[in-house]
Design brief:
Strand content of chain B: under 5%
Order of helices and strands of chain A: HHHHH
Order of helices and strands of chain B: HHHHHHHHHHHHHHHHHHHHH
Strand content of chain A: under 5%
Helix content of chain B: over 70%
Shape of chain A: elongated
Structural class of chain A: mainly alpha
Radius of gyration of chain B: 21 Å
Number of strands of chain B: 0
Helix content of chain A: over 70%
Radius of gyration of chain A: 19 Å
Number of helices of chain B: 21
Largest interface: A-B, 55 and 57 residues
Distance between the termini of chain B: 46 Å
Largest sheet of chain B: none
Structural class of chain B: mainly alpha
Number of strands of chain A: 0
Oligomer: heterodimer
Largest sheet of chain A: none
Distance between the termini of chain A: 26 Å
Chain lengths: 165, 427
């Protein structure tokens, strides 16, 4: 069970890292093109800022979800870590359950936000606003998935090995 | 009630080790439920918080900073600095401050600056007979300038966190320069006095020819700062555009002129930037919902009332804000702290007569000091790791540097001209 889950999780993690890095490079390209077009072609593209922003929301939210797996999010040292015995593990579980709860909430209400904004187009871009917000519920679902992976690993006293450097 | 849940749950969740971004999100959600606000609004505020064009500069500047570090630009700056003043008794200390300041004004990040400059300067100083704790403290306190000097990405975060109050990133960038240079001078004097008192040796001046060569080698890298400053203040491009140009320019200089950057390094830099960006922007997102609820619950007004009980004198108010921020800065990281505290303290500072631009710079220096104070002092930790010494050892001798930074903070807080003169003169 944990093995199959781990394989899927590693695959998502690597894929997301590549996707996010490409997204960043694409954003740099779009904004550089915007400057070049304004001065070189005397014509500012209308779509460039909105497109770069949409790309950023997509890759940042996906990468942030993988951050749960990779444990790169800033956190204070838990007070439970200062207590003896099994308290530290208990604290880690509580923390993971909290993250899981947020992931589920983001999937649910983020999904509602997407549904409500699907009918509105982003000006100059011609895609639904809901599409720009779609990574929010996706990210929420991924956060929940990775939190569950960590919880299962924790229950078996195992660790999820980070893959991003 | 709403405010109690919002703040109480935030601190509780952070205390049990929930990452800051998720603690902010959960506290906001719970507050929505308690106040009968539909939770979807929290996610709408979150999406809105992340959807500002100016925020795109954050991944770009982080990317550019990482490229600079990988391309060996830091090393060239260090070589230039030691060629310039390494011949003076104890001169390597102040010169390291200067070199780190230069790198800060390229990368705009304190953490990037300490890792790039520290890994070059600390071994260099140790080799010349300087103590490791001194070498570390000089570099880490100078790296604090990374948040003051343009293109500080923390200033972009601040501008995004002010809520309804419009603050121009370009003005903030300009306002940071004079305080940055003043702070650097204070640190240089401190570094020199400590070096002389400890009896550190003088190096050998390598001659004007070698100095000239080091300067020529460093110039293409330094030109990034010129592009950003002239580009943004000349109205040629926006701060966001300047950050994208900085990435492209750095990549070209590193690949074509310095020949220190391959495709592999480029991809690695992109991946490293993605990680930092995802972490910071998720916090900005969930803090968007959090800040909206703070405003809805009139948190700034309530805190202002509380502070007025102690004193309503503007000088005392500003001192109180500084002390609260310094204390919070010791145990929280800079980005989340700026996002959480700006909407609360900015209105109070403004009613005490401070402009939003000046308060931004106060916030930067104040929180920058927090980067070198334990228990959570990211820059100090990186510096100590590079110097190979325990944090406690560096902390024993860091006091003179704290003193210099604190003096600079007082000047920035109580003398508006220090921050506001340059942006106004250029208008």
């Amino acid at each position: 069970m944990l093995n199959a889950l781990g394989a899927v999780s590693r695959w998502i993690s690597r894929l997301s890292l590549g996707f996010a890095a490409l997204g960043l490079i694409l954003m740099v390209g779009i904004i550089t093109w915007q400057v070049f077009a304004r001065y070189g072609l005397q014509a500012s593209p209308a779509w460039s800022e909105q497109a770069a922003l949409a790309i950023m929301l997509w890759y940042v939210l996906i990468a942030a979800a993988v951050g749960v797996r990779e444990r790169f999010h800033i956190a204070l040292t838990s007070v439970f870590e200062l207590l003896p015995g099994g308290w530290a593990r208990f604290g880690r579980m509580i923390s993971l359950v909290s993250v899981l709860a947020f992931g589920l909430a983001a999937a649910l209400w983020g999904g509602e936000l997407v549904a409500r904004t699907w009918a509105h187009d982003v000006p100059t871009l011609g895609v639904p606003r809901g599409f720009v917000y779609l990574p929010l519920p996706l990210s929420g679902a991924l956060v929940a998935f990775f939190a569950i992976e960590h919880l299962l690993a924790e229950a078996q006293s195992k660790k999820v090995e980070p893959l991003w450097d | 009630m709403g405010l109690t849940v919002l703040l109480g749950l935030l601190f509780l969740l952070m205390a049990i080790g929930v990452p800051v971004a998720f603690a902010l999100g959960l506290a906001s959600l719970a507050t929505c439920l308690v106040m009968d606000v539909p939770p979807v609004v929290a996610f709408q505020q979150m999406a809105a918080g992340m959807s500002a064009f100016s925020l795109m500069a954050i991944p770009f500047f982080i990317f550019a900073g990482d490229l600079m570090a990988r391309a060996g630009i830091a090393e060239r700056l260090a070589r230039l600095a030691s060629a310039g003043l390494g011949g003076v008794r104890g001169g390597l200390g102040p010169v390291s401050v200067g070199a780190t300041m230069l790198f800060c004004s390229l990368s705009g990040s304190a953490v990037a600056s300490v890792s790039a400059m520290g890994s070059t300067l600390v071994p260099l100083m140790k080799r010349e007979g300087y103590d490791a704790d001194y070498a570390v403290n000089v570099t880490t306190s100078a790296a604090v300038l990374g948040v003051l000097m343009p293109p500080s990405h923390n200033m972009i975060i601040y501008a995004a966190a002010t809520g309804g109050i419009a603050v121009s990133v370009a003005d903030l960038f300009m306002a940071g320069i004079v305080p940055g240079v003043l702070t650097a001078m204070a640190l240089m004097v401190t570094a020199w006095i400590v070096a002389v008192r400890r009896g550190y040796p003088a190096g050998v001046f390598p001659g004007w020819r070698a100095f000239g060569r080091a300067l020529v080698m460093a110039l293409p890298g330094l030109f990034t700062a010129v592009i950003i400053v002239v580009g943004v203040f000349g109205g040629i491009f926006t701060p966001t555009e300047s950050s994208a140009i900085a990435v492209v320019y750095t990549a070209i200089v590193a690949a074509a002129i310095y020949r220190t950057l391959g495709w592999r390094d480029f991809a690695r830099a992109a991946m490293a930037a993605v990680k930092t960006t995802a972490m910071i922007l998720l916090i900005i997102g969930t803090a968007g919902a959090f800040g909206w609820l703070l405003a809805l619950n009139e948190a700034p007004a309530k805190l202002a009332e509380l502070m007025a009980l102690v004193s309503d004198d503007p000088i005392a108010t500003l001192l109180m804000i500084n002390i609260i921020l310094l204390v919070l800065g010791t145990f929280m990281d800079m980005a989340p702290l700026v996002i959480i505290t700006t909407p609360i303290f900015l209105p109070i500072a403004m009613s005490a007569g401070m402009s939003p631009v000046q308060f931004g710079v106060v916030m930067m220096l104040n929180q920058g000091i927090g980067l070198i104070t334990p228990p959570v002092g990211t820059v100090q930790f990186v510096g100590c790791a590079i110097g190979g010494i325990p944090v406690e050892k560096a902390m024993k001798t860091i006091w003179p540097f704290y003193g210099a930074l604190f003096l600079a903070l007082l000047a920035v807080t109580y003398v508006p001209a220090v921050t506001l003169w340059l942006p106004e003169a250029l208008r």
